[in-house]
Amino acid sequence: MDHLLLPDGAQHFIIAPYAAPKDQWYEHDNVFGNFIDYPGRKLWSEDDLHGKNRFSGRPDQSVEQFFQTWLFFGFAIEFFRLGDIDDVLTGEFLVSRGNARVQAVSTMVLLERLQIWVERVKDKRERVWNEYVPMFEIVREVLNRFCTPDEADRLLTEKRPTWPVRDEISTTMIALLFTLTMTAARACDKMKELAEIEWPTARSRILAKRLERMWCRADAATFLADLQIDGQYYFAASQSPRPDDLAQHYDCTKERCFFNVDDKFYETKHAGAPCSRESPGGGKMGFCLLAEQKEWVDAVCQTIDDDEDAFPIARWDRQSGKLRAMKYNFREGPKPEYVAISHV
Predict the structure, then answer these.
(1) Is-above-0.85 flag for pTM?
(2) Residue-wise pLDDT tens digits, 46-86
(3) Is 7 inside a domain boundary?
(4) By residue range, what is the domain housing residue 313?
(5) Does residue 33 sit in helix, strand or coil?
């Protein structure tokens, strides 16, 4: 998780241990198969992967180590091999923490390695993407099966099996899937195709609980519904509102914010510019809607982008019942009266 961006001064707080003995670490096998064939090489059946009969009676620790070895380390190693980077090994993703006997997962190596990978796949984008998608679909299916919140999976017809994989570990799997998928789609020029692919419904339970504890319930629900794991992790590591501010959200629900504020104590804030900006030559105001512009927003954006000496003003036209975009030029004509609305 430490490859993901956090606010200045924030600390990475998800620590995922990896306790598998070295002789059970993932290794690419040119003879007996690679990522897709890994469960069969380890004598895991399709029923086992679905958690039937409590993973055929395997100990919880064994189940956790299998999925972590396969869906994190194996996935990363085979991803880099798609870019002819064959020297990535499990040890690169492990760091020692103090005197702990168990090592922890670190993803800092991704930052440098992914830059090299992007350069390596430029001449074989189509083949790399076609080989990546089946791996993506497998990881997505497993994580969806065990890490999708019940309320998000209304079509579930059978009780979800208990997954003895700790939340910290499953969260790193979700983060890796997101990072590698976005990297592959951009490097292979497949962002349009990515939009048509079913995206994972898997969610990090540990991030969800942290967001719900730190933020207004409605805000937390929005973070979880609208953001991917990088955004969720960013807000989960951000400084939450002060306790006295958060206390005003006591009536909020997941569906709606009922922030309780007394207007009498609300202090209005105004931006310094352009509200108070003065120009010796005054300004000129005129309509700037063009024939090819169907929305007033287009005209507003064009003014901002193309004219450094002007800013747009939205004007309500009573006759048409629509907003019109007007442009105020600092160097010509009279200065118009207008209202700058904050917190939009």
Answers:
(1) no
(2) 999 999 989 999 999 999 999 999 999 999 999 999 999 99
(3) no
(4) 274-344
(5) strand
